[in-house]
Design goal:
TIM Barrel; 9 helices; eight-stranded parallel beta sheet; 231 residues; binds pyridoxal-5'-phosphate; globular; alpha/beta
Length: 231
């Protein structure tokens, strides 16, 4: 097996144990393999061992890779990087998911630009529960209005929330931050939305995220190795 195959196998076992420890079903958490900066061959290695969901941060890099890898049954491409309004069209035309929506203007453009022959774009709202004003993500107080507005756009399907908390020193403080995201998610569902995706947790805080109810963890280096250039 390739190194990537070994890494994925190890991560699946890790996730299985984390779910067990959290008293959750073993398949409660999906793994998003963050392939930014890695080429199509790395994606093919991951495909060969059954990985299907891939995350990209940069629009042009992602679009080129999607074309190079081509059609594969069940493959899903997730845009997880900050999105500017002049870059929405290629995202609407080529990606399956966008996890980093933090304002209505971007959502409206994606809705208008999503081609009619494709399924609705699956989207998450990025929420900023712990950062300063300069960090990406909608604030908790602005979240309900944004969620309601995005849920009303028929070419988008609002699936849930994504968060990238600041690193924390220990498990309990990481879990407390993730629990805030989880509470916002539960509140939106209690108010009538139908969300099923909580994208939170990366290599270092995966267990805390799973304990707090994450349904999707995003791992790059832990799957593909060290990145050759910084991001
Ligand atoms: C790069 C990235 C990841 C993965 O980070 P690694 O350190 O490579 O595991 C996860 N989420 C987002 C939003 C990212 O940009």
């Amino acid at each position: 097996m390739t190194t990537i195959g070994d890494n994925l196998q190890r991560l699946r076992e890790h996730l299985w144990r984390a779910c067990e420890q959290a008293g959750r079903p073993h398949d409660a958490v999906r793994l998003l393999a963050v392939s930014k900066t890695f080429g199509p061959d790395a994606v093919r290695d991951a495909l060969a061992v059954g990985q299907r969901a891939f995350g990209e941060n940069y629009v042009q890099e992602g679009v080129d890779k999607i074309a190079a890898v081509g059609a594969v049954p069940g493959i899903e491409w997730h845009c997880i990087g900050p999105l500017q309004s002049n870059k929405t069209r290629p995202v609407a035309e080529h990606f399956d998911w966008v996890q980093s929506i933090d304002r209505l203007r971007i959502a409206q453009r994606l809705h208008e630009q999503r081609p009619a022959h494709l399924a609705p774009l699956q989207v998450c709202l990025q929420v900023n529960v712990d950062g300063g004003a300069n960090k990406s993500g909608v604030t908790p107080s602005e979240l309900p209005a944004l969620a309601a507005a995005v849920a009303a756009l028929p070419r988008l399907r609002l699936r849930g929330l994504m968060a990238i908390p600041e690193p924390t020193p220990d498990f309990e403080s990481a879990r407390a931050v993730f629990a805030q995201v989880r509470a916002l998610f539960d509140q939106l569902n209690a108010n009538g939305l139908d969300l099923d995706t909580l994208s939170m947790g990366m290599s270092d805080d995966l267990d805390a995220a799973v304990a707090a109810g994450s349904t999707m963890v995003r791992v790059g280096r832990g799957v593909f190795g060290a990145r050759r250039y910084p991001v």
